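User: Could you write out the 3D structure of this protein bound to LLZGTKA7? I've included everything you need below.
Assistant: Certainly. Input first, then the structure.
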Amino acid sequence: MTTPAYKRVLLKLSGEALMGDDPYGINRATIERMVADVSEVAKLGVELAIVIGGGNIFRGVAPGAQGMDRATADYMGMLATVMNSLALADAMRQVGITARVMSAIAIEQVVEPYVRPKALQYLEEGKIVIFAAGTGNPFFTTDTAAALRGSEIGAEIVLKATKVDGVYSADPNKDPDATRYATISFDEAISKHLQVMDATAFALCRDQKLPIKVFSIVKPGALKSVVMGEDEGTLVHV
Ligand SMILES: Nc1ncnc2c1ncn2[C@@H]1O[C@H](COP(=O)(O)OP(=O)(O)OP(=O)(O)O)[C@@H](O)[C@H]1O
Ligand SMILES: O=c1ccn([C@@H]2O[C@H](COP(=O)(O)O)[C@@H](O)[C@H]2O)c(=O)[nH]1
């Protein structure tokens, strides 16, 4: 009953969800609630690696970046994820959780660089690893970073914690008639152009046979429910 369904997971936390009801940035109560959810799962003995988005601060494709050089805007987006990662690690520290932030871009005065064997060592030691700065490359997203790092560390699943409770036939925030899938294959999600994750992330997970669970980070207890293998959110599978 208390045995988790997974030993090692890659959790993708929505940057946008960090805003809570604020128009921008990091809402204190929201980050503390996310950390409480993560803490509950860590206590089950699940090895947790986290990628957090940057949508609450800056996206390379946001209207505010219009007219900018795309790669420059994307580097700004990656730096936004570093800020979120530091905030998350600090919020964890405050409740006694040991987390290590590793950045895909060199910024060594602030955070240690991503080195795969070191990340694996931290996970084996029971520390939470937070992968910052996405893939380190412009023209990608943190969803793709989650797929990439998840594959690299041998995670059993990517858990995409976002503002909606699964994958829908259309964006549920725009189409009230959208219906939720309990499960969907990678090929179907890609061919239907479902925008909940980008196609690069879906394709990488499909090729690596790494399933994805999309679920709501806003719903209390949903993360634990997913980790326990309960019926929650949408499973994207090969
Ligand atoms: N078919 C769909 N099913 C579910 N959500 C969808 C779909 N199409 C679009 N969406 C939208 O995708 C959003 C989640 O993806 P998005 O990349 O915007 O957010 P995130 O990953 O949570 O944020 P961040 O990039 O800041 O981490 C949902 O909030 C929803 O509005
Ligand atoms: O590998 C990556 C990851 C992210 N970016 C840039 O950062 C922002 C924020 O990431 P989200 O996944 O949208 O939360 C993204 O819009 C890109 O501009 C990147 O370039 N490369």
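The mean pLDDT is 97.
User: Perfect, thank you.
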